[in-house]
Each structure stands twice: as C-alpha cells, then as structure tokens.
Design goal:
The chain is an alpha+beta fold. It has five helices and nine strands; from the N terminus they run αααββββββββααβ.
C-alpha cells in the first residue's frame, strides 16, 4: 500500500506544468473571472497567503493539477480531488471548501451557492510529500462532481483553504444531511470563526457535451 501511495505521489509531482506558481496571479485570476469577480460573489476578502493545489486523478491519463481559471471538461472532474499546499501555513488543521456560485446558470444563480465539498481536519503529515494535505475525519460534505445543466455557460468551481477554528469541530450548522443548495460559505465561515481564506483556486466546467 505504501508503494502504491508513493507511486501516486510521484505521478502528482510529474504533472506540475499547470499548477499555480504565484499568489499575485491567483489573486488576479479571482478578481477577473469572466468579469464576475469571485471574492465579491462569495463575499470574501481574498488575500491568499499560500497556494492551494487541487489535483484531479484521471483514470486514463496523468492527474490534472489546476491553475486558477483553467477550464476542464466535465469528465475530467470526477474526483475526488487531492489537495496540497505550497507555502508555510503550519501543520493544520485546515478546512477545505468548494462551492459553485453560478448554479443553475451564471446569469441567474438562483440555487447558488452549491456546496460541492466541505471537509476539515486536514493536516500536512506526509514525510514523502510534505505539501500533501491529509484529512483525518470524514468530510462534512463529500465531493460532488460538477454538473452544469445543458445549455448553461461554464460554471466557476471555487476551492478555498481556511485555518480551522475550534468551533468548526463541533458545529452542527452543516451536516451530511444538509442540502448542498443555497449554501452561503461566507456566512458559514463567519458563524464558525474560520475567518478569511488563506488560499484558493478555481476552475471552469461547462455542461457535458452529451447532454
């Protein structure tokens, strides 16, 4: 099992061309995402301190590591994604959240935000790859693959990293049974004391061509 994990990590390291390398570039991408500024749409001040890397394993090919604003075909986003952090945020714990602010369409986001992932107790624990984030408890909301409806423009899927607060560990505002629609990440972060995100990235995903 350790050998398989080591081989997988090496494959992640081998796909580095697309990853974010500059905090300034990530912030610029967030502020210019299809003329719809992500920090305003999700009500955060976005001044990243570290780079959040999000990597999607692929069944037929090498893993895909996002750079902020990349557009991926839906079939490349089955996940669940692997999270890593570049910088010095400490060991953790951290919270990772993923939301879609464009549901059901960017022009009429009446169901937004959709909560595609919410998980805590992420730590930097790997001796082989110290940037890798490993969660030690089940996610509050397991990863939901992007599924923009037919006819929609591409949606933005925003991944944010937070320092975990003590209140997050015991919160009951969001549970595995809570609807993933009409989520307000900034309000949730305020209510459980997460503060502002310390890192993030995003991708664009359009409807499946077959729909």
């Amino acid at each position: 099992m350790q050998l398989l994990s080591y081989i997988f990590i090496l494959s992640l390291l081998g796909f580095a061309a697309a990853q974010d390398t500059s905090l300034a570039e990530v912030k610029r991408a967030f502020n210019n995402a299809h003329d719809l500024k992500i920090p305003g749409d999700i009500a955060f001040t976005f001044n990243p301190k570290v780079l959040l890397e999000v990597t999607f394993p692929e069944t037929n090919g090498r893993p895909i590591t996002l750079h902020a604003g990349i557009q991926l075909p839906r079939n490349a986003t089955a996940g669940p994604p692997i999270f890593s952090v570049v910088g010095e945020p400490g060991r953790g714990p951290f919270v990772v959240a993923t939301v879609d602010p464009d549901a059901p369409t960017p022009q009429a986001p009446t169901s937004a935000q959709i909560r595609h992932f919410l998980g805590g107790n992420f730590f930097r624990k790997s001796l082989v790859e110290p940037q890798l984030l490993t969660n030690t408890t089940p996610a509050v909301t397991e990863f939901h693959q992007p599924t923009p409806p037919a006819g929609s423009d591409p949606h933005r899927y925003v991944f944010l990293l937070f320092d975990q607060s003590k209140a997050f560990q015991t919160q009951t505002l969001v549970t595995p049974a809570t609807s993933i629609a009409l989520f307000n990440l900034s309000q949730f972060a305020h209510d459980v004391g997460l503060g502002q995100p310390i890192g993030g990235t995003f991708m664009l995903v359009g409807p499946d061509p077959s729909t």
